[in-house]
Amino acid sequence: MNIEDYREYCLSLGNDIEEKLPFQKFKNGEGVLVFYVMGHMFSFFDCNDFSVISLKCQPERIEDLKAQYECIGNPYNESPKHWIGINPLTAPDDLLKELTRNSFEIVKIKYASKREQKQTRLDSAEREHIQPKVKYTKTKKI
To answer: Three-state SS string across the chain, please?
Structure first.
């Protein structure tokens, strides 16, 4: 898959996808294009060297993928425990798309869940703040 087709595929995954070049201040990072969902990275590569795309992956899948596919190896500059690197020039398009969608979903599900938990805590705190606390007192019988 070429760089433009891959970029279009990443952007097609949802309306909440952002693409940025966040590492321009770093010597070897000027051309690193990063795709984000919910403000968190799910895919990135160097536009000047389109030989490795780094993707999030379930840790339990990584060794099997590396053993099964020659195009899968270590990611660029990320933890190999949670990320894989895939060569887009030698990888089958369907595998690249499947692993990219998987990475997107890992990040989206993780941060959607955290956002819901945070919102639930905020809603609960807001309800407690708005609802007056009623004190009950015992009355003496006459």
So the answer is: CCHHHHHHHHHHCCCCEEEECCCCCCCCCCCEEEEEECCEEEEEEECCEEEEEEEECCHHHHHHHHHHCCCEECCCCCCCCCEEEECCCCCCHHHHHHHHHHHHHHHHHHHHHHHHHHHHHHHHHHHHHHCCCCCCCCCCCC
121 vs 127: CA distance, rounded Å: 10
Both tokens assigned to 30: 């000027």
24-42 pLDDT, tens per residue? 999 889 999 999 999 999 9
What is d(CA 85, CA 88) in angstroms, rounded to the nearest whole number? 9
Note the pLDDT tens digit of each residue in 97-107: 999 999 999 99
Q: How far apart are CA 10 and CA 17, in angstroms?
A: 8
The answer to whether residues 13 and 38 touch, using CB atoms and an 8 Å cutoff, is: no
